[in-house]
Amino acid sequence: MLVGVIADTHDNAVAVDAAVQVFRERRVSLVIHAGDIVAPFTLKHFEPLGVPMRMVFGNNDGERLLLRERAAPLGGIHAPPFQFTVEAEGRRRAFVVFHEPLFIEDIAREEKFDCIVYGHTHRRDLRTVGDSLIINPGEAGGWVTGERSVALLDTATNRVEFVVL
User: Fold this and answer.
1) pLDDT tens for residues 20-71?
2) Residue 152: which of 120, 115, 122, 121 has the closest Cα?
3) What is the CA angle 61-96-76, rounded to 5?
4) What is the DSSP string of 30-92?
5) Contact of 164 with 147, CB cutoff 8 Å
6) Would the pTM of this model clear 0.70, i.e. be above it?
7) How many helices (H) and strands (E) does the chain have?
8) Are 9 and 15 in contact (CB under 8 A)?
9) What b-and-e string marks burial along 29-42, b requiring 16 or more CB atoms within 10 Å of the CB?
10) Cα-flanking dihedrals φ and ψ of residue 145, to 5°?
């Protein structure tokens, strides 16, 4: 299964459209958004994905009631930490999604999750702690670092590819 990972879109509709194009071209089966969508109108740009999304609120997501309403048809948005599992390649994989990277290493050492996804720092991160893969796709919005990126996780190989938009 190929999973698209995105964070910190910060209302950059052009960047979201580019990310959606990458996810569609690569035929991802699931998209994880690690927070800071910001305004509800941004979610409209994710509609062409055609695959489920798992999203968490970030510290800049203000209109939470409308974000919940608009996110519901896409798969919903949740308060972090949000835990879920996926069945892929005959194996159940446990995910947890945060926005801010609080206690991530401690959580990884508990070895309850195969993959820990976070955002907030606007910087790409890929590492393994214990048996947990930790991923920050960097910022899709590009407002802080000037570079817009997403990540692709292949659950069969546990390989991650960062894609600059």
Assistant:
1) 999 999 999 999 999 999 999 999 999 999 999 999 999 999 899 999 999 9
2) 115
3) 50
4) EEEE-S---SGGGGGGGGGG-S-EEEE--TT---HHHHHHHHGGGT-EEPSSEEEEEEETTEE
5) yes
6) yes
7) 3, 11
8) yes
9) ebbbbbbbbbbbeb
10) -95, -15
